[in-house]
Amino acid sequence: MDNHQGVFRRELVDVQGIPLFWSTAEQWSQVETFEARPDDLLISTYPKSGTTWTSEIVDLIYNNGDTEKCKRDVIYKRVPFMELIIPGVTNGVEQLNNMQSPRLVKTHLPVELLPSSFWKNDCKMIYMARNAKDVAVSYYYFYQMAKIHPEPGTWEEFLDKFMAGKVSFGSWYDHVKGWWEKKRDYRILYLFYEDMKEDPKGEIQKILTFLEKDLPEETVNKIIYHSSFNVMKQNPNANYTSMNKEEMDHSVSPFMRKGISGDWKNQFTVAQYERFEENYEKKMGESTLKFRSEI
């Protein structure tokens, strides 16, 4: 890829009140009219909530634990990021249109922006949610290294933006609640990052049941091993090291940084924690959705 000056570090653009990458906003009609297929599986998350992890697990399941088949390409080509359109760099819609079924589709869109064809076709969807404080920290480091985002500013500034929903894909609070409500009416398996860390076997079993698949125990154990953080961190097909330094600078912060629960304690000051908790209670207090901030 040539030098894409002018593509990176641009301000976000609102689409129906949700801040998105400028290039996605410019090509929004392509995303909005995306034609889902009935056998598509949508993997949806708010950013930095275990998207790549879930994608790798599901791709391994689709290939019956055959790790060689999962080496066929990098994760962002095996599970295209639908709404990521950057001129001259990538187009998730085109990638998906050129794929054979059954397709795995990645999105970070809140429910209200998801193309209507997914609801119309009653596609199965897996949503992975992670506690807000760990997401905020992980997102801050991701903003630093993934240059499609605007400059993050200081941690304090970024945290304010995160709490106000002024980061790409909008408010974490609205995102997790929106998908939580939607699962009452659609085929959505709602998973939690902390549960997957604590009991990968139990959570992968939930995915298998949801997908109506049955795999022998030794295959499930193999999937657990190959989708573990330490193995994926070393896997060039999963760790995004294949990306151009202009797009993602791993020397600033690796794409796969720590993959733990509770890392927020190393980042938040006491004052930030107190302010965050107060704001969190206002936004999440009424919801039946409950998170664990550590395991």
TrEMBL record:
This protein's GO CC annotations: cytoplasm
Q: Which residues form the signal peptide?
A: none
Enumerate the GO terms in the molecular function aspect.
aryl sulfotransferase activity
Q: Which UniProt keywords apply?
A: Cytoplasm, Transferase
Q: Name one Pfam family in it.
A: Sulfotransfer_1
Q: What class of enzyme is it?
A: transferase
Write the protein's name. Sulfotransferase
